[in-house]
Amino acid sequence: MNTKTRRQDPMLAQSRRLQVLDAASDCFRRRGYHGAGMAEISKTAGMSPGHIYNYFDSKDAIIDAIIERDMEEMFSVFNGFLQAEGPLLDVMLDGCEDGVDKHLDIEKAALKLEMISEAARNDKVALSLQATDVEARRLMKQLLRRDGSLVCDLPDVELDSRVSVMFALFGGLMIRRVLNPQLDRDTVLIALKPVIRTLLTPF
Amino acid sequence: MNTKTRRQDPMLAQSRRLQVLDAASDCFRRRGYHGAGMAEISKTAGMSPGHIYNYFDSKDAIIDAIIERDMEEMFSVFNGFLQAEGPLLDVMLDGCEDGVDKHLDIEKAALKLEMISEAARNDKVALSLQATDVEARRLMKQLLRRDGSLVCDLPDVELDSRVSVMFALFGGLMIRRVLNPQLDRDTVLIALKPVIRTLLTPF
């Protein structure tokens, strides 16, 4: 992957890598991807720049690792849904609250929005995020096709649309959080749950 | 407002102001708000920096004017809805296609996402965007309360939720456009229209 290998206790190396990712996330959020230099990231991480280069070749390698970490988190959520028993609609309605909380988290939202903005002008970041999105849509469609889903027999284009609208909705909550800081999850859930019901039921 | 006044043909002054806003929009999109300097904006606009300062004091004044122009465009859309005859549901379903097209426009999306990212770390930009959002939510609620709306009698918190979810959905389409460039409006509309129907009907 995007990391250099070196002889070191693997647990310690992993913990140092995470330390760099957390520091870089913080810097990207506060200063923007372009505004945050390796010097500031190393200062925030409490490590020397040389030390950071043992783990990551460049800022691009760091953002790739942040995207990868994000993707792993998302995959574990999808896998939870795939393995949950009972009708998909119930499983997803139960999962809504967590999903809303995650997308209304201001620190996560600010970092994700910064990465998406950067993707609009940086092809490398765009390709990484788009590859993750392909995989997320694939998993979501797999979920809609599973036993216990009311929409499992619908044509592909209908499922593509439902997935896109669902992702737009949750992604858009990150924007809501910035533009309407008073918005709380309970208010969102009143209308969000009926919308999820619509998306998981034949029209 | 944020512009200097000077003795000049008002039509010409207005046209010069728009020329600066277009150039600045382009620069903010390509380089990010922080990355774009007044020198680059003036070069893109084909005007000297001194000439630009006749119209705008600072980059902040330019972004305020961009937000204001955005707001005027949005208000004209809302006013169109407010004045349209017939049941609100039909009016809004008819308006969906335009709304999807606008939010899937990559240039507009990239600029808006950059401003929202910037808002997450820049209080002045945040305050301007949030003030616009307050007004947009007020107008949308006014629309949901008008004659011919099926949800006109619902409690305030229900309308707040419906407005927030609707805004999240359209805002999120800008993110979709960046993460899934192949997404087309017809695919989006398949599931988007039933969702709008849900949001404009009592649950």
UniProtKB/TrEMBL annotation, chains A, B:
Signal peptide positions (record): none
Keyword presence, Transcription: yes
Domain HTH tetR-type: 14-74
Source superkingdom: Bacteria
Chaperone in keyword set: no
Annotated DNA-binding residue span(s): 37-56
Xref: Pfam families: TetR_N
InterPro entries: Homeodomain-like_sf (IPR009057), HTH-type_TetR-like_transc_reg (IPR050109), HTH_TetR (IPR001647)
Protein keywords: DNA-binding, Transcription, Transcription regulation
UniProt xrefs under SUPFAM superfamilies: Homeodomain-like
Protein name: TetR/AcrR family transcriptional regulator
